């Protein structure tokens, strides 16, 4: 993903504290596609990690709007 200033991003990370009990994570984790440069068609994923261990991952596809 290329930002308007020319910076190329291959990943973005955010610190977000969640609580876990009985093997379940409670709380909400989300990411909003707000900028045009973020709307890149393809397969993407959102992951929750503990250190370097992936605890959960959700894959999704971004596609061009119809008529574009």
Note down, in words, how this protein is organized.
The protein is mainly beta. The protein has one domain. It is 0% helix and 37% strand. It contains no helices and four strands. It has strands at 19-21, 24-26, 42-50, 53-62. The chain has a two-stranded antiparallel sheet. A hairpin with a 2-residue loop joins β3 (42-50) and β4. The mean pLDDT is 85.
Unreliable stretches covering 5 or more consecutive residues? none
Q: What number of structural domains do the residues give?
A: 1
Which outline best applies?
elongated
Cα gyration radius (Å): 15 Å
Task: Report the mean per-residue pLDDT as an integer.
Answer: 85
N-end to C-end Cα span: 19 Å
What is the tally of helical segments?
0
Helix content: under 10%
H/E element order: EEEE
Approximately how much beta-strand content do the residues carry? 35-45%
Q: Could you give a short account of the major beta sheet?
A: 2 strands, antiparallel
Topology, pairings included?
Elements: E1 19-21, E2 24-26, E3 42-50, E4 53-62
Antiparallel strand pairs: 1-2, 3-4
Describe what is shown at a glance.
This protein is elongated. 0% of the residues lie in helices and 37% in strands. The protein has no helices and 4 strands.
Name the descriptors.
68 residues; mainly beta; two-stranded antiparallel ribbon
């Amino acid at each position: 993903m290329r930002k308007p200033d020319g910076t190329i991003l291959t990943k973005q990370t955010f610190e977000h504290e969640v609580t876990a009990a009985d093997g379940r994570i409670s709380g909400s984790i989300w990411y909003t596609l707000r900028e045009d440069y973020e709307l890149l068609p393809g397969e993407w994923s959102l992951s929750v990690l503990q250190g370097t261990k992936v605890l959960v991952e959700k894959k999704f596809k971004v596609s061009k709007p119809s008529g574009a």
